[in-house]
Write a structure and sequence with these properties.
By secondary structure, the protein is α+β, with helices and mostly antiparallel strands. Helix content is 19%, strand content 32%. Strands 12-18-17-16-15-14-13 form a 7-stranded antiparallel sheet. A 4-stranded antiparallel sheet has the order 2-3-4-9, with no helix packed on it. Bound molecules: FE2/S2 (inorganic) cluster and fe (ii) ion.
Length: 352
Amino acid sequence: MFSSDALTQQRDIRQLGINLNHWYAVARSAEVKAQPVGVVLWNQPIVLFRDSTGTPYALEDRCPHRQVKLSHGCVKGDELECAYHGWKFKSSGECAEVPYLEENQKLPSCKIRRYPVRERDGFIWLFPGDAGADLVAPLGVPEWDHLNYIATVSTINCKAHYSYLVENLMDMYHGHLHQDWQAWAEPVLQDIREDDSRVDAHYQAQSYYRIDKIWSVTQLLLPALRRLHPEPLDVSYIYPHWMSTLGKDFKIYCLICPVSERETRAYLIHFTSLNAFWRLHKLPVVFRRFVKDSLFGSAQKLLDGLVRQDVVMIEEEQQAYLENPERRNYELNRALVSVQRLIRSQANMHSN
Ligand code: FES
Ligand SMILES: [Fe+2]
């Protein structure tokens, strides 16, 4: 007999589960409006909806009556109504009403699973783990509301195990792929730190962007304005998410939502800093808010372009793995050894 630890050590990294005892960003706040939304987190179908006060809730996406998806239904007041026969469910997951219940019949005692959710920094965060284990806070994205940062969001949908995405994000030598989008250049890995919850890799690189003039933001749109200059490039896998800084001007987060062994969804959030403009701080908050909101999405073309290129490679890796799972890679980046170690140890802590 193998212990679960020994089994995890043996299993191929591309088949490992996730540690469920973490908060996962399952949707952008803006994606959950009046209609329920169906999402999947590690093979668990989940329906997200808001009650009459706008508070978000998450329930198992399954009507206990006939097992269809509750996300096909709609919200009535504070309850979720199934599309098929109109049974209604409370945000606690209990059945609240059956429209054709006869006088001598009792309300079915069926109850579906409710997941803890929190809405913060522009995202709906969900905790799929053990009850009472949700003491660890979701990863903070403080720049989301900070007036000095301009955000752009790109959604990643790739048919691949999440480990391929994390490895892509931690291996900055893959800048080679993005030459036409000119994000960073000439990375050199200088230092790696790791513990049982994160891996921090420090690279020295060249950045194409410097945000120090009022017109600098146009560098995101016009390649001719970009000039290479040295900057530290730090990437961190803060399980289960990723964060990076390039000099003082850029910060990127990747909020990872593994869907299954062969599918991953993630939100890439790019922030351009306006911290260099100290005069901006003296302007009225309303004006600063206007600047932040009007420039939202200014790096969209860049970010979507990077994502498209990465997804092609990541999906091809997964495909190659499925065709020849026994083939081994020739990995030279030490950071990826640390990343795989963390994936393995976290999967061993609480995986399904
Ligand atoms: S299947 Fe949902 S109410 Fe019948
Ligand atoms: Fe990339």
